[in-house]
Amino acid sequence: MPSLAGKTIFITGASRGIGKQIALRCARDKANIIVAAKTTEPHPKLPGTIYTAAEEIEKAGGKCLPCVVDVRDEAQVIKAFEEAAKKFGGIDILINNASAISLTDTPATPMKRYDLMHSINARGTFLCSKVAIPYLKKSSNPHILMNSPPISLNPFWFKSHVAYTVAKYNMSLFALGLSAELRESGIAVNTLWPKTAIDTDAINLIAGEDFRKRCRRPEIMADAAYAILTQDSRSCTGNFFIDETLLRQQGVTDFDQYAVVPGTTDFMLDFFLDENMSQLKREQSPMGKQKSEAGPTSGGSTNVGEIFDKIKTLLKPELLKQINSVYTFDLQGDKWYLDMKNDSGSVGQGEPPSGKAQCTFKMSKTDFASMFAGKLKPTAAFMGGKLKIQGDLPTALKLEKLLNQMVKSKL
Which of 135, 164, 258, 327 is labelled catalytic? Predict the structure, then answer.
């Protein structure tokens, strides 16, 4: 049986999520793991640091070197590779997992966020790969693996978040180019992408419990990565792997083991896979929405005015201070505003009297009612095509606090 025992694996962004899960799977083979990430202090809402990840890796059977690394910083990257090679005698595998995301359209994407995505996803991937090559050339079975999707030029994947799509595709383009460049050196370069949304702490923080119930656990990506990394690097290169497809080829038949909720069949599908596109389009099409927009659902009201009246009762100073933003809602052509920034707060039809809103939500009235009843999470609605957001995405996510208040108050 192929094994990663004694292999040294450099993983970016491995303090939590998919990167950490891949590290834990490799650690079970007694591999040496370099956790290269920025998180040294616990995040208030996201568990995990490079040090806690290192503890888990060593408990799983591996050896670990936690390194403070911003993949945009050339000096930090070079130092981390030097320290890793000194400690473990070389480097066999690089996993470019670190990534930044902003699912915003062009007008709503600040250049600072654009630069962050491209400097981490593109530059960081290129930099780490470049620095790794001299070490990998000395390995008997060297691999580079990108956490990035297959490349599709269908406009569907670009139209809603072109900056993110291009940034993510850059990782895949580097994989394509490097696989050809490094083939004669025997260095495998591949990509891996999930068929469904993956449950991570970051996704749960943004999207909430309802969304994660339709996800798979990151173990599926870890098992798929392991299947790639244990193959002969000279015969397995230049591939764009999908987790489920690869594991089926490896003989896996029980995929229920990866479901957050066993028995789930209607998983939230991930972006960038043409095989997922028809279902995603159906969810976004007028016919797909027809039933939900036909009238009120049981147990809820689609009387928008009543919902805004209820919202008005929650505009307390403490909540206004937390959100401090102005929103508009385009509900099938009806315009409403929610001002949680100025004076004592206000709601009403039309444009906000205080001026331009920082964020606009466009959705059906029924989905709006479901969202404010706590039945539909904003991020789940966004990824499912039920919600379009114009403006600042972090500002949009602040509205979760108001939604939580409405659910707690049972309004």
Answer: 164
Instruction: Tell me if 102 sits within 8 A of 379, measured CB to CB.
Output: no
Q: Of 267, 295, 284, 287, which Cα lies nearest the Cα of 388?
A: 284
Which amino acid is it at 357? A
What integer best gives the mean pLDDT of the chain?
Answer: 88
pLDDT at 382 over 90: no
**10-24, 81-95, 268-282, 354-368: the lowest-pLDDT one:** 268-282
Q: Which residues make beta-bridge pairs with 33?
A: 9, 64
Contacts of 191 (CB under 8 A, 6+ apart): 145, 146, 147, 148, 149, 150, 171, 172, 175, 239, 240, 241
> Which residues is 361 bridged to in the sheet?
329, 389
What does the pLDDT look like over 213-232, one tens digit per residue?
889 999 999 999 999 999 99
Number of H helices, E strands in the chain: 18, 12
| Residue showing tokens 């600040």 | 110
221 touches 145 (CB < 8 A): no
Q: Provide the b/e sequence for 126-162 (b: ≥16 CB within 10 Å).
A: bbbbebbbebbeebebbbbbbbbbbebeeeebeebbe
Is 164 known to be catalytic? Answer: yes
Which amino acid, one-letter code, is at 363? M
What is the end-to-end Cα distance of the chain in Å, rounded?
59
- H or E element that contains 359: strand 359-363
β-strands 359-363, 388-391 pairing: antiparallel
Q: Are 327 and 340 in contact (CB under 8 A)?
A: yes
Distance of CA 14 to the CA centre of its chain: 14
